[in-house]
Amino acid sequence: MRTTRTRLTIAATVAAFGLLLSGCSAGGGSGNTDPTNVDPDGEITPREISWLLSRPADGGVITAMEQIADEYAADHPGFALNLITTPDRPSYIQKYETLAAANKLPELFDTDATPFAQKLAKQGKMMDADALLKDLGVYDDYRPAALNYQRFDDGSLYMVPFEFQLEFFWYNKALFEQAGVEIPKTLDDIPAMCTKLRDAGITPIALDGQDQWPLERYMAYYPFRTAGPDYVQQLKKGDAKLSDATGEQAVQWLSDLGSAGCFQDGFSSTGYSDAQASFTSGKAAVYNIGTWELNSLATDALDPSVRDDIDYFTLPVTADSVTAENEYVSPSGIGMAVNTKTYDPLVRDFLSFALKRYPEVYAATGALSPTTNVETTIPANATPLYQRAVDQANDVGEQTAMPWDTQLDPTSNTRLQQELTLLLQGEVDPDEFITTMDGVIAENGPKAFK
After folding, report:
1. 278-301: buried (b, 16+ CB within 10 Å) or exposed (e) per residue?
2. What confidence tens digit (pLDDT) does each residue in 60-115 have?
């Protein structure tokens, strides 16, 4: 049973939000104004500090941090970590941006490497994570790919990763054999693969189109292979356009996926659970998802009728790929930022304890740590695929395909999601898609950096 020193706020989120806005957040703080002053002078005075999160309340990150906070509190009476979680990402972003505008963010808060977060960093409101991790002596423990995922366009680091995931194309070997298809060697092989599977009466790819972000992964794939991870940064700043060769190739490939019927009928209204069920029940041949689903795809929780047929392949390359086969989407999740205003000796001391303890506690849950100094505990009910997926993390390149939903401004992102669905459904052609999105991004993208 957890002690009362660590309090997880779920039902009381609204009340906590109101308190923060009114200036009653867990305070103290040194009034620090220097993001690089990572080792401030002063006594360590225990108090309650808060972390505004966008993570599942029963997930591995929160569970591990609750344990660690309790351990720290045992030696620091009066300390408490108040975890204020809003797993729904759109609701969280609204709350986080409102608090930031009111200058009421708590000591710790979650954020992606978005244009909004970059503005906060430029305003000196976030501690320099690069300097902090090096000062705490843990920087070299982190996987380069995990840190790189958190960096802003200019390479600066202001967020600390607490996860590491690999995104694979999981596939059903029996269905591939039935349709006479092989693992695609290039992205351009995928439409033909889909056509053969369709002709065999098999749904090619299960897609959660309702949540949109899985669909945007496909938008990111072709440009990542042909132009590298910088393309989306150039696009959102107005230094590149979809009407350029890179963009045209990507949009045509997406149109080809739609023409080949790669995704299930009604994909735009299919949710996360239904898409996964389509694959795990043997109806769909391919499912693109990350290692956060290892417990569902690589343990005896998986339906015995398909368990032995499940395997995976990584993101295929292109004929002229500028990124390597071992470079694909390897996210380290939403990062944790440290509020400059409230950073003091206590916050530093707790982070020093927590970041050194966290990898061991988190890896014990069967998850991949963002660091390389621990080994993931493989569950007793795991299939051999679980260990293989974990081992794959040791052979990941430093470049990662950044999800576009974390990169584009909100207006461009929302419109992109709408237009992608229309493109795949054949309701707009590639030229119409390009013209529309070039206009939307040109109008809204550069504004996000002002």
Report:
1. bbbebebbbbbbbbbbbbebbbee
2. 999 999 999 999 999 999 999 999 999 888 899 999 999 999 999 999 999 999 88
